[in-house]
Amino acid sequence: MRNEARFDLPRRMLLGPGPSDVHPRVLGAMSQPTIGHLDPAFVSLMEEIKDLLRYAFRTTNAFTIPISGPGSAGMEACFVNLLEHGDTAIVCVNGVFGTRMRENVERCGACAVVVEDAWGSPIDPDKVAAALKANPGTKVLAFVHAETSTGVRSDAAALCALAKQHGALTIVDTVTGLGGISVDVDAWGADAVYSGSQKCLSVPPGLSPLTFGPRAVAAVKARKTKVQSWFLDLSLLMGYWAGEGGRSYHHTAPINALYGLHEGLLMLREEGLEHAWARHARMSAAFVAGVEAMGLAMQVDADVRLPQLNVVKAPSGVDEAAIRRDMLGLADVEIGGALGAWAGKAWRIGLMGQSATPRHVLGCLGALEGALAAAGVKIPAGAGVVAARRVLDGA
Ligand SMILES: *Cc1c(COP(=O)(O)O)cnc(C)c1O
Question: What is the reported pTM?
Answer without folding.
Answer: 0.97
